[in-house]
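Postdoc handover notes: sequence design on the structure in folder B. Input tokens:
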């Protein structure tokens, strides 16, 4: 897998039926190691190590209904009240973050209504709040202690 613009972490990889799988510390199992999963695992570790989020507040690849479509969120951080706080959409490093990516996560916002939304492809990262249909970009991601007080 290629280097990302995210901190390295100690990961475990094993081969299942000849295909690489990476250990997901949130789901507590090995999952298929795709380019998007590589980004997701790096971002999970970033949120835990650099931003202080406890593993117990993570939901990974959780299903949701948007209109009549079944969708899956990549990473969702829940508040202490089990409400969506931060929703992260991960893309593979070779997928550019475009307006379509922001539109995708904004659709999830209508259903889940987290306080913060984020998009990453492992190379570029964006965090923003959606307020009254307006996007307000943040300089950084919220730290756990900032919303836990």
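Designed sequence:
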């Amino acid at each position: 897998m290629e280097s990302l613009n995210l901190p390295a972490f100690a990961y475990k990889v094993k081969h299942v039926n000849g295909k690489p799988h990476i250990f997901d510390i949130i789901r507590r199992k090995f999952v298929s190691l795709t380019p998007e999963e590589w980004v997701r695992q790096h971002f999970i570790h970033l949120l835990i190590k650099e931003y202080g989020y406890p593993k117990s507040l993570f939901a990974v690849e959780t299903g949701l209904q948007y209109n009549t479509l079944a969708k899956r969120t990549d990473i969702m951080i829940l508040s202490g009240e089990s409400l969506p706080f931060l929703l992260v959409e991960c893309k593979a490093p070779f997928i550019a973050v475009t307006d379509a990516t922001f539109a995708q996560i904004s659709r999830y916002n209508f259903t889940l209504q987290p306080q913060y939304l984020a998009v990453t492809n492992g190379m570029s990262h964006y965090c923003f709040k959606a307020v009254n249909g307006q996007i307000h970009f943040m300089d950084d991601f919220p730290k756990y202690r900032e919303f836990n007080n």
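Context for whoever picks this up: The CA atoms of residues 72 and 97 lie 18 Å apart. Don't rerun without checking with the PI first.
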